[in-house]
Amino acid sequence: MRHYDMTYDSDKFWNFVNEHMGDDPAKLRLRYHGDAEMSSAITQIECRQRFGKKLSQTLQAYPHLVFGNTLCGEQSTSDALARIHVSLLPRDCPVTDLTAGLGIDAMHAASAGHPVTACERDQALANALRDNAAGRDLKMLRVLHGDSVEMLRDGILHGEVAFIDPARRGDGGRRLFGLADCAPDVISMLGDFRCHFKMLVIKASPMIDIRGGMVEPLECVTDIYTIGTTTQCKELVAVCDLTKPKVAAGTQRIHALTLLADGEIADFTFTMSEESGPQPPLRTPEAGEIIYEPYPSVMKSGGYRTLAHRYKTSKIAADTHLYVHTDIIPNFPGQAWKVLEVLPWQSKVLKRFKSRYPKISVAVRNFDIAAAALQSRLGVKEGDGRLKLMAATGADESKVLLILER
After folding, report:
1. Where in the chain is the domain with CATH 3.30.2130?
2. Three-class SS of residue 271?
3. 193, exposed or middle or buried, with CB in 10 Å at 0-12, 13-18, 19+?
4. Which of 120, 121, 131, 137 has the fewest CB atoms within 10 Å of its CB?
5. Where are the alpha helices (DSSP H) in 285-379?
6. CATH number, span 74-271
7. Nearest Cα to 144, choosing from 117, 166, 110?
């Protein structure tokens, strides 16, 4: 079964890909300029070089995975995130993916036992997904080519769960930060989803505001997931119960999920009503105490007060989201640093700083100077990660310099 002008299933094609896996794709394109089949093979090389790490599980399961183009690889879900997406689905329920792309989410769902209908409006990508599914023997994955918005409105798409990942970039690569600005516009489609599905899962940009951009316009949201690594929040995922006209205010659950280096997931979950609780104690840390820096997904979740109360910590200031405790707290969803020194923001301290800490990482929290500008002002070089300068604003609006050790 072949849907291409080039022979993706030939030994010659894949031998070329494997033999040149370490070569520079740009140089290969110059060497084989005008050869369409070689151009396609070079695309496979480039995509494996660029996206092989995030798609290692998929490529291990099917080494001949075809990338229709580099953009689909760039925009694709990672294997780690796709596993999380599948975990949100009711067991064995049928799933319709309205924005399949490379099809990583669809293939993971089908591999987990879900009957999947994957829609893709780009013919080449739809063909690639069909062949990739066939190559992996994913009999529960059906691919439809066409406009999923039209198919939804025409009643062609229906079932238990709809999954959608609206495009986050507009004309000229412009970033889009509101759900209504993305394509498809999920908010305007909500009525159509209600007619044909029971549950809607929306993957969205981490730049979207949780309350104003998701919970309020999507009144049937029951759960919001902020998902990321220890260094970056990667995405937001909203789960909507389409059988309910409106979810009671404050009952929405926020789940901050962080993928850890050992493969485990740190989970900090709370309800929106919990976060309306009282402000935690505020104080400046002392040398020998522990500063906790929440993971990016926790920061995005907005559960600042809940975090302090749950782990019985203080904060440096109401808007300075650094947490203080005298001891190590097991399973705190963030990085722990020991406080070596607490220095005041004074001219004499700044002048002597470089001589004492010539190499140190610099970060800021609720501070009126950017980290790069502060590093330049102090004249220090980036360190090895063991020491960190955290410049922050205290509860009394004073500026403090925290010298931290991992």
Report:
1. 277-405
2. strand
3. buried
4. 137
5. 296-301, 304-310, 347-356, 371-378
6. 3.40.50.150
7. 117
